[in-house]
Amino acid sequence: MLLTSSVINLSFDYSFTEYREGMYITPQIAELKRLASRSEHCSIPAVQMKIFYKGKHLQDEDTLSTRKIVTESTLLLIKGPKPANSNDVSMEVPQEASTSSTTAASSNAAPVPCKGGCGFFGNPGTNNYCSKCWKDLKEKEEKEKEDAEEKARLEAEKVDDLVEASDDRPVQSDVNRIVQFVK
């Protein structure tokens, strides 16, 4: 029997537990998400919730009648990724404040080609390098740093050698001999 009344009984399968809920609802999936997220059994915010029925993902603009969802149906709830646009709070249930906007921005960034030119995708957390190119870059920087330290050490030794060489002037060994200077 297709849903035509405003009272429905649905079973939700979430986190290996199934619970039943009777609710007054408009036949919109977006409204179903809002009501399910407010339930005491569900901890998924409505903006992150994905609902599946018979293996098909239900979109927010879908209606229960177009997807032929009958009363006493079981819907699968899955937590999806956080929305990329944080201004889209039309369905959002109040949540705790985010800890860092930079980590949210970097985790939601679109993949870009690797700066190293290897053909793989880069990660914003590694300055748009793939993991292999990032490792190679860090090894190259470390080698350059070690080479610069070695060069500085060799220059310091060269200066020390010059100072020692300048100290190699002849030393008067016979202290009994007096040198006279002529005016």
UniProtKB/TrEMBL annotation:
Zinc-finger in keyword set: yes
Annotated stretches, region: Disordered: 84-108
Coiled coil stretches, renumbered: 131-165
Residue ranges constituting the A20-type domain according to the UniProt record: 108-142
Domain of life: Eukaryota
All copies of domain Ubiquitin-like, residue ranges: 29-78
Pfam name, any one: ubiquitin
Keyword list, A-Z: Coiled coil, Metal-binding, Zinc, Zinc-finger
Gene3D superfamilies: 1.20.5.4770, Phosphatidylinositol 3-kinase Catalytic Subunit, Chain A, domain 1
Low complexity bias locations: 97-108
A molecular function (GO) term: DNA binding
Protein's name according to its UniProt entry: A20-type domain-containing protein
Species whose genome carries this gene: Perkinsus marinus (strain ATCC 50983 / TXsc)
